Amino acid sequence: MLNTLYKEVSLNSFTEQEIGDDHIHTGIETPMKVDAFKISDEDKKIRIAQLFAKIMDVMGLDLNDDSLKGTPNRVAKMYIDEIFSGLNPNNKPKVALFDNKYQYQQMLVEKNITFYSNCEHHFVPIIGKAHIAYISSGKVIGLSKLNRIVQYFAKRPQVQERLTNQIAIELKQILTTEDIAVIIDAKHLCVSSRGIKDDTSATVTSYYGGAFNASEKIAELQNYLNN
């Protein structure tokens, strides 16, 4: 099976390598197979463990060593239950809205939401903070749900631009308002630990919708974030 998969991947394609290194993304939706959920999570763990054991074997690691023998199963469990759990729509956070009884009409800002994601081009971590702001159209959302929405979309192979848009679009649909802002400031280990190996740079992406397209609202938001 591993040989079949290996043959399907072109390691010498300049275009594929260039796209990965330049962090180009192909759309707002996470690229998924049509039958992505035909296999159960438990079966996926078994198959990932088998394949990862073969990868370790190809690398020359001794899977009989006490420290390594459990690694394939640990990696499989981590992939499905933790760092890529956002691929499964069953893990999407349940969200309840509440009436804006306080009649609060200004922006609400939830800043410094820490997240861990993984670059879809090299499968190495993206570590960052997300800042979310919205103006109520009559409904409000529990603060912890903003964090959970960020984590849900972060826990999948990602590109930062896509992550930013996915969070914003989800919040627009939930809150039924265009007045959404999402800013993400993140460090990419595919930049700092490989390739150019620049450990000091960070990437910032943003989405401004509705009222947040006005320069004064952007300035107000930035003032909140800088304090």
Please specify the SSE layout and strand pairing.
Layout: H1 2-8, H2 14-21, H3 41-58, H4 71-83, E1 97-99, E2 108-119, E3 125-134, E4 139-141, H5 143-154, E5 157-158, H6 160-175, E6 180-188, H7 189-192, E7 203-208, H8 215-226
Parallel strand pairs: 2-5
Antiparallel strand pairs: 1-4, 2-3, 3-6, 6-7
Helix pairs in contact: 3-4, 5-6
Explain how this protein is built:
With 227 residues, this protein is of the alpha+beta class. The protein folds into two domains: 2-91, GTP cyclohydrolase I, N-terminal domain (GTP Cyclohydrolase I, Chain A, domain 1); 97-226, GTP Cyclohydrolase I, domain 2. The chain is built from eight helices and seven strands. It has helices spanning 2-8, 14-21, 41-58, 71-83, 143-154, 160-175, 189-192, 215-226, and strands spanning 97-99, 108-119, 125-134, 139-141, 157-158, 180-188, 203-208. A five-stranded mixed beta sheet has the order 5-2-3-6-7. A two-stranded antiparallel sheet has the order 1-4. Strand 2 (108-119) and strand 3 form a beta hairpin. Helix 3 crosses helix 4 and helix 5 (143-154) runs antiparallel to helix 6 (160-175). The N and C termini lie far apart (54 Å).
